[in-house]
Design a protein that fits this description.
The protein has ten helices and twelve strands. With 286 residues, it is α/β, with parallel strands linked by helices. It folds into two domains: 120 residues, 60s Ribosomal Protein L30, Chain: A (2-Layer Sandwich), CATH 3.30.1330; 149 residues, Alpha/beta knot. Helix 6 links the parallel strand 6 and strand 7. Helix 1 crosses helix 2 and helix 3 runs parallel beside helix 4.
């Protein structure tokens, strides 16, 4: 059994620069956005997200891992740390900066009400993917709510969509709130952020399906075999919907629903659309 403590250094002061950065990341807001942009780093918090990064073998993206004097003995946390250390040793990687803080400092840092304390700082990938003609894409057009964005990322991965494009105005993919809502989906997805809609359309040849509440739109359930071809679903802003540039370049699609409901939450609409496409493709293979 590894003696984990010998791999860690101890920080006791809340005035430590790294500790101050971690706290700023976890508090969110404008200052966190600036810090993320300037440093190229973000934070993941909690057992589930740290486990996702370790299991996906993206440990080299972790620049530090912080836990508390008590929680290093938590069975789930110690298992994560052992796997992390063994992976680094097996692959001759440098360890992330491994840090222990006392329980009172951990409580002051944590943004979670319950659960043991473990935080990782991760490098934000700098590469973006090139759009290929046969790619199935999810386009998030100025979706502002971090919970909605994170939920759509998790749903997209579950439905088999791994390439995500965000237009200007969409909540930052690497914010702590989006990371938390996505529940580790980031480790399997590729992103393009803050792109101008017209610039994006210039690079695309896929069929574009734009969700809309419009009597002229096509029912999602009538697309059928078209969903087996390369396509992009566009999901729009919670209040304003999808940008007219996409509407004028794509096929408007509506989800049949009861007349008593004005509209669906965008993350719910995304789930219905993406899993309808998965259903159609599944049937084709049977």
């Amino acid at each position: 059994m590894l003696d984990l403590n010998r791999y860690f250094r101890y920080i006791s002061s809340s005035n430590n620069d790294l500790i101050k950065d971690i706290k700023q990341h976890l508090e969110g807001g404008v200052k966190a956005n600036k810090l993320r942009k300037d440093s190229g780093l973000s934070c993941i918090e909690g057992i589930h997200l740290l486990r996702a990064w370790v299991d996906s073998k993206r440990i080299e993206e972790l620049t530090c891992v912080i836990t508390s004097t008590t929680d290093i003995n938590n069975s789930e946390i110690s298992a994560i740390l052992i796997d992390l250390i063994q992976h680094c040793e097996t692959n001759n990687f440098s360890y992330p900066d491994l840090i222990i803080v006392d329980d009172s400092l951990a409580k002051n840092l944590s943004s979670l009400t319950n659960g043991p304390f473990i935080v990782g700082q991760v490098q934000i990938p700098s590469e973006v993917f090139s759009i290929k003609d046969n790619d199935n894409l999810v386009i998030l057009d100025s979706i502002q709510d971090s919970g909605n964005v994170g939920t759509i990322l998790r749903t997209a991965l579950a439905a088999g969509y791994r390439k995500i494009i965000c237009t200007q105005g969409t909540a930052n993919i690497w914010s702590v709130k989006v990371l938390r809502a996505a529940m580790g989906a980031h480790t399997h997805l590729n992103f393009i952020e803050s792109i101008n809609p017209q610039d994006l359309l210039n690079d695309m040849k896929q069929s574009i399906y734009v969700t809309a509440l419009d009597h002229e739109a096509v029912s999602l359930y009538k697309l059928g075999e078209a969903l087996t071809q390369a396509h992009a679903f566009v999901f729009g802003n919670e209040g304003k919907g999808v940008n007219d540039i996409f509407i004028n370049s794509g096929i408007k699609v509506f989800i049949p629903q009861d007349d008593g409901v004005e509209s669906l939450n965008v993350s719910a609409a995304a789930a219905i659309c993406l899993f309808e496409a998965r259903r159609i493709n599944y049937l084709k293979t049977q």
